[in-house]
Amino acid sequence: MRMRHLAKFIVSWFLVIDAFTTASAQEINASDLLHHVATLSADSLAGRQTGTIGAAKARAYIIQQFKRIKLEPVFANFEQKFEFPIIQNSQNVIVTGCNLIGKISGKRKIGTILISAHYDHLGIMDGQIYNGADDNASGVAALLEIAHYFSQNQPGHDFVFCAFDAEEQNFAGSKYFVANRPFSIKSIDLNVNLDMISINPVKTLYIAGAFHYPFLETLLRDQVNSEKAIKVVWGHDKPELGKDDWTFLSDHAAFHRDHIPFLYFGVEDHQHNHKPSDIFENINQDFFLEASEFILSSLVVIDNKFVKNMH
Ligand SMILES: [Zn+2]
Asked: Rounded to the nearest whole angstrom, what is the distance from the C-alpha of residue 289 to the centroid of ligand 1?
């Protein structure tokens, strides 16, 4: 009897250890994840173009979720407003954008990891709504569920969550944030950027950034090699790839220019990219959930193993 109890105890003790060191497949709530994408890519948000009512509706939803998750606001009501010029009908027009930023304080105060995903998209062109379900309601949805996980499982690092505006306007939101970040998040040790993570029929997710910061590949090697549900490929970050080098093609670029290491998670370009057909019905739900779970478990590994100035 005693031996059997002991064996049981050892087994359950290992399970407990395992639960603390890895994020299991049930950590992302699939229905919440899909609900976020369906809401943000609905026709009523009219493609979430910066400065429009649709973008304001997207913001209201994200703020409501930040409050539900109990993120600490970095700015009043999480909002960092900024202005930038665009050319409209050959006139210079000033547009107001708004980043949303919330934080979870880590228990070990060992540095800051910043997760980003842009919530804006292209709006309405020629009378057609560009819903942007994959680009980038998908990344925002994963960001929200990742924030939810870490609000229940306090990380060691400080985690900052940025829903950027105006990515589709020459990355105006992330550029403004990096140049005007508040004192409390002056020092950022790693940016993890999510942009387009839900459409890929052959279940392949790319990670870019390790060409510039090779220590990050070492950090995640076991995690990538042991992934079964999706195929994870390092790449799209070497200058010789030309237009297939994604180093400067999303919000992580502003961090990279400021010498902050980054990892970018995203899919290969696809037929719905920047098309009115980028709608909720066209995302690959299983792949999206598995990709989000992979990104979350990668972040758990990063939180456990990453230390400042590793590179
Ligand atoms: Zn995008």
From this structure: 18
